[in-house]
């Protein structure tokens, strides 16, 4: 088990979860890491812990450097159990450690673990003197939980950013430049889309706040540590936070007997004819969290479903519920699909698009039974018209 140095006396002591494939609905084909960092100064400080099943791995990594009993401070930047559920095991080995966290963090840890540790609540701008270096605390509420906080190590200029700038990727190489950067950026985009998308305004505010700090390293709580590609990932966060939209249309649909699928393919042709990049995802086989990653920068989203019992198909219901929670910004949307008699899917989709904050600026297209040649022409025009609208907005 190798410990990795981020800087003189700052170590990676986290755990690699090679086999996790589902993070409450977010697929993780490359696995996950739970990052924890140890600072050896006049005072010994641990930044976050790991998920409970990996407590032993964390403690072994720490023990290679110091006796865990010597830890003076544990910084709990975030109480979500992937970062805090090993805390009781660490506290058992470091019973004198003080736990520093926000007020929301304190109430959350108390409720999760029912242990009244030696807490020290910190707020914006508070500083912890470790000896040669200091830790400065930057609460970032709702990025993505109320308790979320970022900690900044002066001297070494390391930003311990917790979930922000994270990626779900298992690797034996801890730094961005030691890995395939395209793979890392892809996973960072997927992470942002699935976890941070609803909090764009807070992301922009936090990045603006962090710009004041000289940063040599960004050490997130998931994935690789940024030391080379910091400008790229910070600029991506600014763009995503502001709701950057490009000339791309994502068509997500499901089809009962093939008519909605024919519509989707013809609409895609119309989108392409307008010079806009189109992507097609059938939700009975597509991975929802991958589709959402692709939607992050898309200017337009088209949702198709056959009508089933006056509503949309279940796979589309799941996607729309997910999108409603993610509230993507700066996008337009429209609905389409085939029906047999009463219809109803398009109205349900439009309602969900609106409640997800997606502007519905084009009337939906509903066709009865199987589309004929004339109706397929309408589908083509539907796609082309929609794509033109996207072009005027990006
Ligand atoms: Fe990685 Fe919000 O926990």
Record keyword descriptors for this entry.
Metallo-beta-lactamase, Chain A; 2 domains; six-stranded parallel beta sheet; binds MU-OXO-diiron; alpha/beta; seven-stranded mixed beta sheet; 12 helices; 394 residues; Rossmann fold
Please give a structural write-up.
This protein folds into two domains: 4-241, Ribonuclease Z/Hydroxyacylglutathione hydrolase-like (Metallo-beta-lactamase, Chain A), CATH 3.60.15; 246-393, Flavodoxin domain (Rossmann fold, 3-Layer(aba) Sandwich), CATH 3.40.50. It is built from twelve helices and 22 strands. 35% of the residues lie in helices and 24% in strands. It has helices at 55-63, 81-84, 87-93, 103-113, 181-196, 200-210, 230-241, 259-273, 288-295, 314-326, 345-355, 373-393; strands at 4-7, 10-12, 15-17, 22-23, 26-27, 32-34, 37-40, 44-47, 73-75, 98-101, 118-121, 127-129, 134-139, 149-153, 158-162, 217-220, 246-254, 277-282, 298-305, 332-339, 359-360, 365-368. The chain is an alpha/beta fold and 394 residues long. It is elongated, with a radius of gyration of 24 Å. The relative contact order is 0.10. α5 (181-196) packs across α9 (288-295) and α8 (259-273) packs across α12 (373-393). It has a seven-stranded mixed beta sheet with strand order 1-2-7-8-9-10-11. MU-OXO-diiron is lined by residues 78, 80, 82-83, 144-145, 163, 221-222.
